[in-house]
């Protein structure tokens, strides 16, 4: 499997800052932040599966526009995978005919453009060619999951947004024998630790505590950095983590596993 980073920033406001979205092969999207808008129409139309970690705007902002853009180019629905809470939020607050059309009923209920697929932590979705995606529980201010992507040859885990104290998450990660890559968030610097705790995000000190629970050797990639604090936060991370030598995830970066 090949993952292409479309967006990995905690916000916008500067050139090349895009919020969370990752294209896997050509047909799988992990989150649908503003990075999706850089894809051309053919690339958008090729996406069959969208896996959402949670319903915060920086992770779903481009989904309504993407569906509208491909409406006349698809004969099959786009499968949107998420837990009950995320699907309920999309139905109530986005695809409700007030903010955006309810594409789960358009062009008809029997042949919609959008198909909701409810997921529970630990439930593996097989996508052909040996590929699978499994949600992992994490804690955040809203219902949220991480994802384990397995190509059959190697695995990648994306944390989504998490707030620390992730016992269930690390139990799953440490059991993945073919783990190659871990993409983990760190949204705030140490100086904003109180804000990170309030919003259930990681900061370098807490990230170090969490990664202290990692028992598998793998490449570690840091995502969700705030644009104006990214350099400071990465310096703090490198100091806090010492020998682990994490990498800062970059737009357009490709990771094969």
Blueprint (SSEs and pairs):
Blueprint (H helix, E strand, L loop, with lengths): L1 E6 L13 E4 L3 E5 L8 H5 L3 E3 L5 H4 L2 H8 L7 E5 L1 H10 L20 E5 L6 E2 L5 E6 L7 E6 L4 E4 L8 H7 L5 E7 L7 H6 L5 H8 L7 E5 L6 H12 L5 E2 L5 E3 L1
Parallel strand pairs: 3-4, 4-5, 5-6, 10-11, 11-12, 12-13
Antiparallel strand pairs: 1-2, 1-14, 2-3, 7-8, 8-9, 9-10
Helix pairs in contact: 7-8
Report on this structure.
The chain has a single domain, classed as 4-Layer Sandwich (Metallo-beta-lactamase, Chain A), CATH 3.60.15. The radius of gyration is 18 Å and the shape is globular. It has helices at 41-45, 57-60, 63-70, 84-93, 167-173, 193-198, 204-211, 230-241; strands at 2-7, 21-24, 28-32, 49-51, 78-82, 114-118, 125-126, 132-137, 145-150, 155-158, 179-185, 219-223, 247-248, 254-256. The model has no long low-confidence stretch (mean pLDDT 97). The longest helix has 12 residues, at 230-241. By secondary structure, it is an alpha/beta fold. Helix 7 (204-211) runs parallel beside helix 8.
């Amino acid at each position: 499997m090949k993952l292409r980073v479309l967006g990995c920033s905690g916000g916008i406001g500067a050139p090349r800052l895009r919020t969370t979205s990752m294209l896997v092969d050509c047909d799988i999207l992990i989150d649908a932040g503003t990075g999706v808008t850089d894809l051309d129409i053919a690339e958008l139309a090729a996406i069959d599966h969208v896996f959402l970690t949670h319903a915060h705007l920086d992770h779903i902002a481009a989904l309504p526009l993407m569906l509208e853009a491909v409406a006349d180019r698809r004969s099959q629905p786009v499968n949107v995978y998420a837990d009950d809470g995320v699907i309920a939020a999309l139905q109530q607050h986005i695809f409700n005919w007030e903010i955006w059309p309810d594409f789960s009923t358009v062009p008809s209920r029997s042949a919609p453009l959008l198909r909701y697929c409810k997921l529970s932590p630990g439930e593996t979705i097989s996508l052909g060619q040996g590929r699978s995606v499994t949600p992992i529980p994490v804690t955040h201010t809203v219902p949220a999951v991480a994802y384990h992507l397995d190509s059959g040859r190697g695995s990648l885990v994306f944390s989504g947004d998490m707030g620390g104290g992730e016992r269930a998450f690390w139990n799953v990660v440490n059991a993945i024998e073919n783990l190659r890559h871990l993409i983990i968030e760190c949204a705030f610097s140490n100086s904003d630790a109180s804000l990170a705790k309030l919003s259930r995000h990681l900061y370098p000190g807490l990230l170090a505590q969490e990664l202290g629970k990692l028992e598998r050797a793998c490449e570690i990639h840091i995502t969700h950095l705030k644009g104006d604090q990214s350099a400071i936060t990465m310096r703090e991370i490198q100091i806090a983590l010492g020998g682990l030598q994490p990498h800062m995830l970059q737009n357009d970066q490709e990771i094969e596993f």
